[in-house]
Structures are given as C-alpha cells and as structure tokens.
Design brief:
Helix content is about 25%, strand content about 15%. It is of the alpha/beta class and about 325 residues long. It has two domains: about 280 residues, Glucose Oxidase, domain 1; about 30 residues, no CATH class. The strands form four sheets. A nine-stranded mixed beta sheet has the order 1-15-13-7-9-11-12-4-14. Helix 1 runs parallel beside helix 9. The chain is globular and about 70 Å long. The relative contact order is 0.23. The mean pLDDT is about 95.
C-alpha cells in the first residue's frame, strides 16, 4: 500500500473518500468496538515499554491550564477560567463556619475540554454523518454526550512505548518548521533515519511529532497558534498512519495537520479520515520541547509514556497531563 499519493487541491471530497476507503478499520475489532487503534497497544507492550525507563527522568508534556493560554474563542473555545470558592482571607475572618479554627481553600475551573493539552476522542469528528466504526453520528453523540465512545472508554489504555520524531530539529531551521510545512511520510522516514534505531515506529506505539510551533509561540506570542497557520502532518500521511498501526499520535500544534490544509477549500481533512475511519486517537498542543532537548542530548528517542485522559463521562475529548519517563 502506498504511503503517499497525488493530491488534486481542487477536489478534497474525492481524496477524502478514497483515503477513507483505503484506510478504513471499520469492523476490524468487531461491530461493538470503542477503542479503535488503542487495540494495538496490549498489556505485553506496556510491560516491555516499562523496561525503557533507565534514568527515571520524567518529562511532563502538558501546557499550562490557565487564562494566559492560546485560545481566541474559536467555536466558543476559551482559555480556562479559575475561580476561588473559599480563600485564606475567608479563613482569617472566620466566615467559613468551621469549628475549632480550621479553615480551608476551595476552587472551581470552567474550561472547554480541548482548551489546552488534550486528546481528541473517537466521537470528535464525523465523515458525512458517520462516526467511528460506521455508526450514525446521531446515535453516538447527542446532547447527553458521546454515549458510545466517550473518552472514559480510553481509561487505563494510553500508556506504553512513546517515540518522538523531532521533525522540527531534523528538517527545520533552528529547530522549527515554518507555517504551512506539510510533513509527509518521506519526512517522517528521514527523521527516523537521522535520529537512529530508537526512533523506529510500529504497532502499538504512541507517536509524538514535534514541529517547533509551540516554541515559536512561546518566543513570539500566541498569535494565531490556536487555529491559524501551522506546520503539521500532510493529508498524504493517512496511509502511513494506517499501515504503521500506531496506537495514537500527538503533536505540539493546535490542529495536528498542516494549516492551511492542502486543498483549496477544506477544513481538517486528515481528521476526517483519521478519527472516524482509522479510529486514531489524536493529541494536540503537547509541550515536547524539554523532552526533545533530552532526546537530542542522549540520542534516545523512545521512552515510557503515560497519557491518560481525564475520564469525563461522555466527552469527545479531554485534557491530559502526559508524562514521558526515560
């Protein structure tokens, strides 16, 4: 099966339909499946991945969850709003109503579940009204949430061998790719070759792709990081993602795939194949910079990765605080 294919920028519909047919995993794990590509990641693989821990160095891969984040209100996505319910001031003034001088602080947060570092669940994207495994979108996600593939179904599943492909460092300038750079399967192969044998990617792996886009946002300001132009995976990587049988993929960008997209009139076409047809879990806005620096320093690009989503029942995506351990 080819890893890349020619694109007609004027015809996203045909390209999406063809890729969806080639890359479909519908029925692969039965009609009732809710895990998609997470089925590739087995207990045996997790056990082997644990052996990758050599130094015990831990790298948190989450951005901050606060009001200074990247969101600009697109589709009602805002930055987290953190509010105190009880404070030290209340305790000092004795207004909390507790006995024998005890006081406390309590707080609440309001946020879209995809405001910062997060996973896209299998109920997040549809193709012509169809969800993962060929289900009707309306039978999956209603006003009550995702009744079938809610993000809580992934609980306890997303831990295993992580692999970092630092495409920004290998192919970019000063560790960064320019906006609009479409990462192809050939670029991924070149990065694997440059990084060495610990970068091989295969079944059940948790693939991390660094572009350098977050590093640029940190240096120059958020700008259009959340929703604007960005480097990212080419639509042509759909076949590579399918044939490689990775369990999940995450990037340091807002949208995972290249923006502007590679068609004249399209919005996130790779999502439209990857989530409802491949059944692929997609992570976005991950902070890969410190991990990437360490991988470059010791030449080891594999590690144990735990990236469990917040198990919000019925959610189509959820925040995550991934931890890579080397």
């Amino acid at each position: 099966m080819p890893t890349t294919f020619p694109l007609d920028p004027r015809d996203p519909e045909s390209a999406i339909a063809a890729a969806a047919k080639r890359c479909s995993n519908w029925g692969r794990w039965g009609a009732d499946d809710v895990l998609g590509t997470l089925n590739f990641l087995t207990d045996d693989m997790r056990a082997r991945a644990a052996a990758l821990v050599r130094r015990g160095a831990a790298f948190p891969l989450a951005q901050s969850f606060d009001m200074n984040g990247p969101q600009r209100g697109w589709r009602r996505r805002t930055n987290p709003v953190h509010t105190m319910l009880d404070t030290g001031t209340d305790a000092e003034r004795g207004t909390q109503g507790f006995p024998h001088g005890i006081g406390g602080a309590d707080d609440v947060i309001f946020m879209p579940l995809q405001a910062s570092t997060q996973w896209d669940g299998l109920g997040h994207i549809f193709d012509h009204g169809q969800a993962w495994n060929g289900r009707r979108a309306g039978d999956v996600v209603t006003s009550d949430g995702d009744l079938v593939t809610g993000i809580q179904t992934a609980t306890g599943r997303i831990s295993g061998r992580g692999v970092l492909l630092d495409v920004g460092r290998v192919l970019g300038v000063d560790g960064e790719l320019p906006d609009g750079f479409a990462i192809t399967a050939e670029h991924l192969a070149a990065t694997i070759a440059a990084q060495g044998p610990t970068s091989t990617v295969g079944r059940g792996d948790l693939l991390l792709v660094r572009t350098g886009r977050l590093a640029r946002a940190r240096r120059d300001g958020w700008g259009e990081y959340a929703g604007g132009d960005s480097p990212g995976l080419s639509f042509t990587t759909a076949d590579w993602l399918h044939s490689t049988e990775v369990a999940a993929v995450a990037t340091d960008t807002w949208g995972f795939e290249v923006r502007p997209n590679e068609f004249e009139n399209a919005f996130q076409p790779l999502h439209q194949v990857a989530i409802p047809h491949i059944g692929l879990f997609i992570g976005e806005m991950w902070d890969l910079d410190a991990l990437a620096a360490d991988c470059a320093a010791d030449g080891v690009h594999e590690f144990f990765l735990s990236a469990e989503p917040l198990p919000v029942t019925g959610a189509v995506g959820a925040p995550v605080v991934p931890i890579a351990v080397k």
